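Throughout our pipeline, every protein is held as a single compact record rather than as scattered files. Such a record has a labelled line for the sequence and another for the backbone structure tokens. This encoding replaces a full spatial description with a residue-level series of whole-number codes. For reference, a complete record is included directly beneath this paragraph.
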Amino acid sequence: MIKMKNVYKKYANGVVASNGINIDIHRGEFVYVVGPSGAGKSTFIKMIYREEVPTNGEVHFDNINVGQLQQKEVPKLRRRIGVVFQDFKLLPKLNVYENIAFALEVIEETPAEIRKKVNEVLKLVGLTQKARMFPNELSGGEQQRVSIARSIVNQPELVIADEPTGNLDPETSWDIMDIFEKINARGTTIIMATHNKEVVNTIRHRVIAIEGGIIIRDEIGGDYGYE
């Protein structure tokens, strides 16, 4: 599903965030991306959904060379990828239902399909009773649930999560991970950059460790590996 071939990424300030990465991620996998701060984790995942473009090498999503896409083609790619951020990125003037529905409105889904799909994901993330509340009326964990619901309402093939439990307390983090497990069980590929040692060591999946822009470890059912 995702293939990186000799991928290099060098920023204008001279920082090399990817230094010859080669990787294959298969459909339906759940992959943790771990490593110290500044190791290149965020660049790794941003290149998949074309937020960043490699300096050299190729990033393929389902046989599409992502780096060679024209800008007008990028939205079509992103309809197939859901992204969950650490800071939620909800629209403050829209309520829970409207925040999720917005992802479908921009692709001109019908009102009937919007209602159906939004209600389905609200049920999945346990927020049916809070559909009319606004982001500032929700806890951090509830806001992250909305962010997840928005990322999957379009039924993407891949969900990328960048530190999704980073701003949450431990108990809430487990609740959020339970949602990701359910999403993965439905066949959606998950790639999650995380510093959460307890989660990685408890809910075992494939672990890709990056340091200095290089993949130093790639293990099925691996542990976090850092203190």
Notes: The CA atoms of residues 197 and 224 lie 5 Å apart. The domain at 23-52+64-219 is CATH 3.40.50.300 (Rossmann fold). The longest helix spans residues 170-185.
